[in-house]
Amino acid sequence: MLLDVAARTSLQPKYDIVLYGATGFTGQLVAAYLHSVQDLQGQKWAIAGRSPAKLAALATKLGAGVSSIAAELTDAAATADLVSSTRAVINCAGPFSQHHAEELLGECARRGVHYSDLAGEGFWQAEMAAKFHQVAERSGAKIVLGGGVDSIPSDLGCMLAIDALPGEGGPIQARAVYTEYTGSFSGGTLNSGRAMSRARNEGRVTAAMEADPYLLAPGTTGADSAVGTADGMPAGFGWGLSRRQPFFMGRRSTRASCVSYSECSSVGLWLRLGWVYASRGLGYFRGEPINLSPRSGEGPPSWLLEEGAFAVEVTATAASGAQAVATVVGKGDPGYGATAKMLAEVGLCLSLDAHPSAAGGVLTPWTGLGEALAARLRRAEGGAFMTLDVARTPRAGDGAAVR
């Protein structure tokens, strides 16, 4: 069933937002954040997943004001009922290539319901873009891939830096340098790694795909296509005595940002991460050790969820030599404490805010939500969660830098 934009806007869904996969480690963090935000006070929203018992327990923990929906994504009717009940769906049930997220995403694309998730499986994202971009364009659904730290800091950083160079002709080169990334990993992270290994064995992921920085933009040719690597850095870039080092998120973020983009980390990032781990005795000094072999449903300790942080500087350089530097900084373990809030804010933006009226499709946070999402993240937690700033370094004779 494919609903066009006119049909979709005539419907009045029951919920403003539905969170699927709410009972997992990250899902519970997202649910707790949604329950705390002022925007949903007096609004209707729901948690969803496969287990009625786990959903009931979480609903009791959260308190009044939240409904629950039990639905198996292999049940087409149940999935259709879930999607048709809401303006937006956010999904935490990964690995997404294995847990039938295609059924949920596809139903949203067909029905004109906005969707976002935390998938880090690039091959699966490419499959979803190929299958559902045109479907979502017709229905008006915005399918925002990478609703967490995988994409938002670098994607919005690129947006801010490039938008600060209006009227510049020729290609713009953007480079992101992560200067802080203090956090840990969960059982879900390990499961996603296993999903990638399984996909390689099945032939869904090839070496050429993993080396392609434009995997999610088929047919795109960038200024660096002939010489770049999957993270956009020059061929041969690697570990060594240099102030810039490889960054494990580069392959994911490059695919979700902009043409002629590269990403790496500073030496300081790794030194800062080592200091945090050592000074806390890997968490033993806090009474909550970091779990280095987490199972499903397990993740970073509570102190790291709060004390973790990330920071990235994105420098955009125009052909004329003019530059703009965007700085994106956030509090909380990047992959969990911070990502949970980012995904929740993406969902709220999709459901409640007036965002760009561009056609739907499979999009990035920048192309789907743009400045509306940046403004929402700046306001989150009274402005204490994230900062997104930009300054332009003018060419000679242009005057002072602008901010």
Uncertain spans:
1-10, 239-258
Helix percentage range:
25-40%
User: Could you report the average pLDDT, rounded to the nearest whole number?
Assistant: 85
How would you write the strand order of the largest sheet? 3-2-1-4-5-6-12
Number of helices: 14
Radius of gyration: 21 Å
Using the alpha-carbon principal axes, give the shape.
globular
Largest sheet: number of strands, sense, barrel closure:
7 strands, parallel
Number of domains: 2
Beta-strand segment tally: 13
C-alpha termini separation? 47 Å
Q: What percentage of amino acids are in beta strands?
A: 15-25%
H and E string: HEHEHEHEHEHEHEHHEHEHHEEHEHE
**Secondary structural class:** alpha/beta
Describe the structure.
This protein is of the alpha/beta class. Helix 4 packs across helix 5, helix 5 runs parallel beside helix 6 and helix 7 crosses helix 14. The strands form two sheets. The chain has a seven-stranded parallel sheet with strand order 3-2-1-4-5-6-12, with helices on both faces. Strands 8-9-7-10-11-13 form a six-stranded mixed sheet. Helix content is 39%, strand content 18%. It has two domains: 184 residues, Rossmann fold (3-Layer(aba) Sandwich), CATH 3.40.50; 194 residues, no CATH class. The N terminus is likely disordered. One of its GO terms (biological process) is glycolipid biosynthetic process. One of its GO terms (cellular component) is plasma membrane. It holds the Pfam family Sacchrp_dh_NADP.
